[in-house]
Amino acid sequence: MNPFAAPCSSDTVSAGEYAGESSPLSERMKYFGLVFRNLARNKRRSILTTLSITVSVFIFASLISLPSLLDQVLRESRQLAACDHA
Description:
Blueprint: H1 24-41, H2 43-85
């Protein structure tokens, strides 16, 4: 079978057809185990990374919502100013 050729129906192989091949779920579990082991290995780096991502998301959300908040404040101040002059 040519690895660079487009697969045809006779070339396709099911997930469990090869002997000793593990299922996709067990592959994911191995991957998650590796991730969690490495996260626990250097706790300070993991905590700092989590905090920096959290702060970044907070700043991003604040900057995205700032224009609508300013529009609302200006609209309310115009309504109050119009009521005071009437």
